[in-house]
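> example.struct
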């Protein structure tokens, strides 16, 4: 999801403005904190200034949410590097973006994982014009995306993904909050490239584990869907249950509660 915003918000910029910036400062001071930075960056909103055709397509004063198509690109303001390449300008807080390009600059709030994927060819420059500037090349971005995928796997499968044959069934009681969160994340059918999804109870008899099985029908890569699900289920307690996610193309109907 992408949130278009225009409201100016002046503030002193010499101190961390949010939790991510506190982690960045800690990582600059001590490299042992870089793992925390890798964990948090894909989960928070980052901020970009649309440019070119993207900016032209935004109505003056427009705010609100929209969904990017899986194949949709985006023009954003950037910084020309010494070698002539233009790095996409990304910020950890909109006030830093406005300090760089003006308080009336239209900006976009986008999940960090989506930003990394959208500009995965690199380079990305984080917080240009500030003391917290960081430059990410293609290999750096790939490493961050891989770390995000590992984190998503660990978050959704406490104790590791169960092995062996899984038995699926319709849940006795529909987990309404979980279904609502997933439906909101997936959006209208086809809008995010997801054509259908089912949520079923799952039991792995060989290892004595139970949980939930989310069957997502899409052509999008597994890591993208896992990241989307991770963000959607943030704050949902699964206890000892596992949430396993399967991703594949459209086929016969799945088992369980239809999410979209």
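> example.seq
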């Amino acid at each position: 999801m992408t949130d278009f915003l225009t409201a100016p918000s002046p503030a002193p910029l010499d101190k961390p403005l949010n939790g991510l910036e506190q982690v960045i400062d800690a990582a600059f001071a001590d490299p042992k904190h870089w793992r925390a930075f890798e964990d948090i960056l894909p989960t928070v909103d980052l901020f970009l200034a649309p440019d070119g055709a993207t900016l032209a397509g935004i109505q003056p004063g427009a705010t609100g949410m929209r969904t990017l198509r899986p194949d949709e690109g985006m023009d954003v303001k950037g910084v020309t590097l010494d070698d002539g390449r233009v790095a996409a300008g990304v910020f950890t807080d909109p006030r830093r973006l406005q300090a760089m390009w003006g308080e009336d600059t239209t900006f976009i709030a986008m999940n960090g994982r989506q930003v990394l994927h959208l500009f995965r060819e690199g380079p990305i420059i984080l917080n240009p014009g500030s003391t917290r500037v960081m430059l990410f090349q293609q290999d750096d971005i790939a490493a961050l995306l891989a770390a995000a995928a590992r984190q998503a796997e660990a978050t959704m499968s406490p104790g590791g993904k169960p092995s062996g044959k899984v038995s699926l069934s319709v849940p006795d009681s529909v987990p309404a909050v979980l279904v609502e969160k997933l439906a909101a994340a997936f959006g209208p059918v086809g809008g995010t490239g997801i054509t259908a999804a089912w949520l079923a109870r799952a039991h792995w008899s060989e290892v004595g584990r139970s949980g939930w099985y989310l069957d997502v029908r899409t052509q999008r890569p597994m890591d993208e869907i896992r990241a989307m699900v991770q963000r959607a289920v943030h704050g949902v307690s699964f206890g000892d249950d596992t949430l396993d996610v399967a991703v594949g193309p459209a086929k016969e109907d799945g088992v369980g509660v239809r999410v979209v």
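> remarks
Residues 138-156 form the longest helix (19 residues).
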